[in-house]
Write a structure and sequence with these properties.
alpha+beta; 60s Ribosomal Protein L30, Chain: A; 7-stranded mixed beta sheet; 23% strand; 3 domains; Phosphoribosyl-aminoimidazole Synthetase, Chain A, domain 2; globular; 740 residues
Length: 740
């Protein structure tokens, strides 16, 4: 049959790619084969533009238990016979179409990636981006996404322990919804996504298959939005109560020797789960679509193979054990059906009864053409990077208090309590440091250890200088862990960019990955899992390049954890500065580059952010040494809003004041609100200050005394004098006021 241009467009295949399929098969593909190729060759599944760049990431490291890309998620050893499993994925495009269901099924999908490996999910986090809340559409997307995350995660009984939320015009109409999940398993019981050898049986478990999610991987997630297209049919609908049953049943099965592997049905549904599992085992699969339970009448093989209906798992069962496996699922009232078998011919054969509707070699389906482009730096970027920040009027002392309050109430800095209180972050009773600090902390039951988790990203920095922005993203995540007292273990990431076929966007993608990879090498942190979300554009407008890093760390003694709150009257407050004296003198107004102050006060996104990774490494080593000796009473990194906002947040969190005096060598706005990297505000008991200075000196870290904690006012002598209650009001209610 002749394939039409519309059919190619439906599966996001180019004419050249179609001709390659014909060449490989030696014939025209059937319509089912076309859909399978389109899904598996899509950016979402095949990583056509990003996979060549992934080779830049360090993926090996002490304790890493999985090969990146070979499993649903990455696993790293925790000791004590336990492993941590982690993954982050996007559900950006579905959330832009149907925010509640898009976000909810994003949570459901990332949770399945964890328990399909035999790990019990123990925590959720998310990284969210929206357009300005002054626009009704953005408020609708924001409330819908938050509601979807809360509605699904709370029903599963998995604590949502933190994350980040930012707002910028670049995300209007194209929100970013990146969901992260981590789980725990006993190391020997790790379940792989594989089919094993011929004769094993393919069992489909969970929800019946419907038409929801068709072309989700190849269409909605792998091309630019087109406003005139009707896309709601590509968004799945979730059922968290069914997923909860799947979790318990699958975790029960991992303790048996009845199964070979498990794979969830996510993007591209049955096609990707079966074909990718077979590819990992060097086998083939034969599936009869008539044996797939359906909830819609008249579904054809194309729809069945590409459906992305939620809450479905493919379980590979050892021959002869199907009744035992089925009995487990029956106990949980879960439907399970044998729909096919594993073969040894390395062919994906799809049957409709006795009729073959698709028959293609596994290696053809899983080997998409990869594109390594030569990116071009955008011409407009030179003007932004070269903008003379010194030409901006400096901040006057009498303006400092009002500017501080304005920054604290900015939706990018203000408390996200309005969001967090919709999430259950105490379920499972492991949460020790809840949302709102630099990182969240969970107790590792049965041990003195703690797991520390954070996620970070800064689209403005990456927009202005992709390489530095990518490096800063990794550095800030590691710094957040160090502030909490944890040594980083591993990274999962989600790379959110525009259309990679545009050479300027590809340049951003490559630059950010190179910066992230270099930071990972300097800090010795492997990347063990991840996801890309490309084609994030509305019309010709692209989002900021926004790589998000999820990072996990370990504290050997959870009692030595640290948080951002000032603790007691008379504690000495200092800033640990890893930049070096000569670096501090030379930067000047450059430290306003990409800052919240610059955009809030001057309505500009300009400059050229930078970071010295070796100095950052020294700073984090200093924090870990001081924290390990129990010297630090609080620690909070200087990021959005700079030094003064960090100080104010530590006061607000601890409900205690600060009295200090310092003079910068240059501009007041830089001194108060510049976002120079590699700085952390810490508080110590007076008798421990000398020991802290010794540790810092060994690593060439500057220690600048700022003042003392105490009282109920925030005072920087001669510059700012405000009640802590006023700071708290601005910070705590800023987001709610912005949403009306």
């Amino acid at each position: 049959m002749a394939i039409t241009k519309q059919q190619l467009d439906d599966v996001a295949l180019s004419e050249e790619e179609y001709q390659l399929i014909v060449e490989r098969l030696g014939r025209e593909p059937t319509i089912v084969e076309l859909g399978m190729f389109g899904s598996l060759w899509s950016e979402h599944c095949g990583y056509q533009h990003s996979k060549p760049l992934f080779k830049l990431f360090p993926t090996k490291g002490e304790g890493v238990l999985t090969e990146i890309g070979e499993e649903n998620a990455g696993a790293v050893n925790l000791g004590d016979g336990l492993a941590l499993v982690m993954k982050m994925e996007s559900h950006n495009h579905p959330s832009a179409v149907e925010p509640y269901e898009g976000a909810a099924t994003g949570v459901g999908g990332i949770v399945r990636d964890i328990f399909t490996m035999g790990a019990r999910p123990i925590a959720l986090m998310n990284s969210l981006r929206f357009g300005p809340l002054s626009e009704p559409r953005n408020r609708y997307l924001f409330s819908g996404v938050v509601g979807g995350i809360a509605g699904y995660g709370n029903c599963l009984g998995i604590p949502d322990i933190g994350g980040e939320i930012y707002f910028s015009e670049s995300y209007s109409g194209n929100p970013l919804v990146n969901a992260m999940c981590v789980g725990l398993l006993e190391t020997p019981k790790l379940v792989k996504a594989q089919t094993g050898g011929a004769g094993n049986l393919l069992m489909l478990v969970g929800a019946d298959t419907g038409r929801d999610g068709l072309h989700g991987a190849s269409g909605l997630a792998s091309r630019v939005f087109e406003d005139e297209r009707e896309l709601r049919s590509t968004v799945q609908v979730g059922n968290p109560f069914l997923e909860k049953l799947l979790i318990e049943a699958c975790l029960e099965l991992k303790d048996t020797d009845w199964i070979v592997g498990m794979q969830d049905l996510g993007a591209a549904g049955l096609t990707s789960s079966a074909v990718e599992s077979a590819s990992r085992s060097g086998s083939g699969v034969e599936i009869d679509v008539l044996k797939v339970p359906r909830r819609a009448e008249g579904m054809n093989p194309y729809e069945i193979m590409l459906s992305e209906s939620q809450e479905r798992m493919l379980v590979v069962v050892k021959e002869g054990y199907e009744d035992k496996v089925k009995s487990v699922f029956d106990q949980y009232d879960l439907r399970s059906d044998i729909i096919g078998r594993v073969t040894d011919d390395r062919i994906a054969r799809i049957m409709e009864g006795s009729q073959v509707v698709a028959e293609a070699p596994i290696e053809f389906l899983t080997d998409p053409p990869l594109y390594r482009l030569q990116g071009i730096k955008p011409a407009w970027l030179d003007e932004l990077q070269g903008f003379d920040l010194e030409s901006l009027p400096d901040l006057r002392r009498e303006e400092a208090s009002s500017v501080l309050l304005k920054l604290l109430s900015s939706p990018n800095i203000a408390s996200k309590e309005w969001v967090y209180r919709q999430y259950d972050h105490q379920v499972q009773i492991n949460t020790v440091v809840p949302p709102g600090s630099d990182a969240a902390v969970l107790r590792l039951k049965g041990t003195p250890k703690g797991i520390v988790l954070t996620n970070d990203g800064d689209g403005r920095y990456c927009y202005l200088e992709p390489y530095a922005g990518g490096a800063i993203t990794v550095a800030e995540a590691a710094r957040n862990l160090a502030c909490s007292g944890a040594k980083p273990l591993a990274i999962t990431d989600c790379l959110n960019f525009g259309d990679p076929e545009k050479l300027e966007v590809y340049w951003q993608l490559e630059g950010c990955i190179k910066g992230m990879a270099e930071a990972c090498r300097v800090f010795g942190i492997p990347v063990i899992s991840g996801n890309v979300s490309l084609y994030n554009e509305r019309g010709s407008r692209s989002i900021y390049p926004t790589p998000i890093v999820g990072m996990a760390g370990l504290i050997d003694d959870i009692e030595k954890r640290c948080d951002m709150s000032f603790k007691g009257d008379g504690d000495v407050v200092v800033v640990l500065d890893g930049r070096g004296e000569e670096d501090q003198r030379g930067k000047g107004a450059e430290e306003l580059s990409g800052s919240e102050y610059l955009e809030c006060v001057h309505d500009k996104v300009a400059g050229r952010p930078s970071i010295d990774l070796e100095r950052e490494k020294s700073l984090q080593g200093c924090l870990l040494s001081a924290g390990g000796e129990g010297l630090l009473k609080s620690a909070h990194d200087c990021s959005d809003g700079g030094l003064t906002v960090a100080l104010a947040e530590s006061c607000i969190s601890g409900n205690i004041g600060f009295q200090g005096k310092w003079e910068g060598a240059g501009r007041l706005d830089v001194t108060l609100f510049g976002e120079g990297q590699s700085r952390v505000v810490v508080s110590v008991a007076p008798e421990n200050l000398g020991k802290l200075e010794e540790i810092a000196a060994q690593r060439k870290i500057q220690v600048h005394r700022l003042g003392v904690a105490g009282g109920n006012r925030f005072v920087v002598e001669g510059i700012i004098a405000l009640p802590v209650s006023e700071l708290t009001d601005a910070w705590r209610h800023g987001l709610e006021r912005a949403t009306g």
